[in-house]
# Entry
Amino acid sequence: MVFTFSIALGSGLGYMEFVAGRLNRPSLRLRVTAAAENRVRGGHPWVFAQSVREQNRAGKTGELAILFDRKDRFLAAGLYDAQSPIRVRVLHAGKARALDTAWWRQRAEEALARREGMFDGTTTGYRCINGESDGWPGLALDRYGGTLVLKLYTAAWLPRLEDIAALLGTRERLVLRLSRNIQEAAAEGFGIKDGQVLRGEPCAGPAVFLENGLRFEADVERGQKTGFFLDQRENRREAAALAAGRSVLNLFSYTGGFSVYAAGGGAESVWSLDISEHAIAAARRNFALNGDRPAIANCRHETIQANAFDWLRETRYNRFDLIVLDPPSLARREADRAEAVGAYGRLLDGALALLRGNGILIAASCSAHVTAAEFFGLAREAARRTGRPFEEMKTTRHAADHPASFPEADYLKCVYLHLLR
# Structure
């Protein structure tokens, strides 16, 4: 894999420089609970507001906070967010050191080096920086061909936006995406908005990129996440390998990623179901982008705009050989977990009821608050409830460009169930 954007750090990153304990102005100093101290020492990148025991002054979102342990020794340094329950996102822990230009350059180069050799020219859409797991807490960077998309999940990065853009170079288009919870702060405090082009030419439409040789569009300015669900790339490839000669149902299809792969793998027919008219239209366009492939051109593609829960409950006549069940996160908070477990159960029961003999269900969850063991157990129990013999073909987790280094980042899981004749 060749990264075509440069690490172009220059003197402009002086704003990001930090030397623990050697600032000209009073630094923001925090002491945390013993439990939080142990978590930070163990590598966890978050310090919650309730874990802060004391601080020397009011903190400002975006400044660097220094954490000290119970013996007044340096513990860590991180980005302070005055409005977030995650009060500090740790950048560095252990021995005090300068977080200077060279440090930031090394941190970026290390993230890119982890992806070296993962992809060839047939895949031009992938994740370059995966937040905390790559040492950039609350920040993700995705590539879609010649377009880079920077997604921020914390307002703590907003004061450093120009520095980050400088770090990534200026030769390619760079689009900014903001999580909903920081859009107001971005607009009022910095005059920036979600979907804004920070560098390069304005977007003339969706970015088109390659994934395992297939062409897809990504709405990098308004689409979910950064425009496409790059984290499901390997499961899409697995679906293609299982699709030959089968009728396929793609539930929660979004822009039809699994659908295009299934058609490319030789599916006889593919049904894409999503509640969003915009997503359904994008799925049709993604099929059209690959119309030069005979398998895709010859595959019958039906689209259904519907609520998947309602449709599964009401449909009586359709049967499929392969069903992909990949809903959005059903538990965004721990308080949602019990309700999500029930919802997954209903979805699994409904999908399995539509499988023909020798059919395969590919079921995924992106809810971090529902563990892999719990989700896989739900799927197995649902298969047992059918009264039909089945085998568990495999389970999968995160793709290599989406590493998960701490529990809250460990969200993606997928199980393949084969209902025997």
User: Anything to note?
Assistant: The chain has eleven helices and 22 strands. Confidence is low (pLDDT under 50) at residues 1-24. Residues 337-353 form the longest helix (17 residues).
